Write the structure tokens for this entry.
Amino acid sequence: MAFYQFTTYQKLPINVEDIWNFIASPLNLKEITPPHLGFQVTNNALVEKMYPGMIITYKVSPLFGIKLNWMTEITHVKELEYFVDEQRIGPYAMWHHQHKIESIKSGVLMTDIVTYQPPWGFIGALANRFLIKNELNAIFEFRKIALEKRFGKYPF
């Protein structure tokens, strides 16, 4: 079965502490997720800051409005530098998402590296080519715009 890797970058005109405080809170996920996905965190007692071993559960509608359960675990956290979430239950055969931040001139650079494997073998490979890859691009483009609205646009 094929697996794929998707990498995206974003510069923001804020400091590492401010972006970390925002992205390290599962309570902010809905704000940076496109509304058409019907994203809803279903954990009842989420804490403000993530930690290794934290389980986050969601409802999400990635295709045709069909609601799916998704469970991720925060597997690694290095305060002010990176965290990793991995799917435990959900729409992918495998999902590993690295969120990195680093200080740069006049702001921060955020790097997301998503390594994933679609379900359904050959059919999943076709779905990736025509649907999944494009949907991931759209999701991260939405997120870029949402973060720019919240924190401002990087000057150059």
